[in-house]
Amino acid sequence: LCLLQASRLEDLRVKLENEGLVNISYVVVNHQGAYSQRKFHLLKESVSDFITVYQQDEQQADVWTTLNGSKDDFLIYDRCGRLVYHLGLPYSFLSFQYVEESIKIAYCESKCGNCSYTEPDIDGVCENITRSAEEKLVEIELKPSGHHSHHHHGQGQGQRHRHHHHH
């Protein structure tokens, strides 16, 4: 994860927490190489203490190989530790909304079946998320294209090209 991605992950964590998505564990896995190890402290400074930065040892089996992924991937697990989404580039760029949407789906929907750790009080939070997503879509459909409203939050055209990826 590059430093820009790390600070964007911190922003996303805060945004989701403000929307009521709490008790999510975030882990950044740093690359094994010497260059990445030297940058470890910078990576750690890019995020708060709420995001764990894990430094792989050069001698251990590479985490990314074990997970069938590569270093810029996002793996999103549900409360029972089941893999719900595995996003690679370019879908893992945090300037897009794929990671955020995937976290919300893993949080709110039982994609992998029921989980014994489902929290009883998430209904309200998830209802709001669904409602605001629907309102955004209506807003986009009603708006003539070419008029960038303030809802884009510097996302460029990310908002207009909302790919619905219900796997």
UniProtKB/TrEMBL annotation:
UniProt-annotated stretches for the region Disordered: 145-167
Q: Which GO terms describe its molecular function?
A: selenium binding
Keywords attached to this entry: Glycoprotein, Secreted, Selenocysteine, Signal
List the GO terms this entry assigns under cellular component, sorted alphabetically. Answer: extracellular region
Major subcellular site: secreted
GO biological process, any: selenium compound metabolic process
Q: Name one Pfam family in it.
A: SelP_N
Compartments, as annotated in UniProt? Secreted
Q: Is Glycoprotein one of the keywords?
A: yes
Please indicate if the UniProt record lists Transmembrane as a keyword: no
Where is each Selenoprotein P N-terminal domain found? 1-167
Question: What PANTHER family does this protein map onto?
Answer: SELENOPROTEIN P
Task: Report the protein name in the record.
Answer: SEPP1 protein
Q: Which species does this protein come from?
A: Jacana jacana (Wattled jacana)
- Quote the gene name from the UniProt entry: Selenop
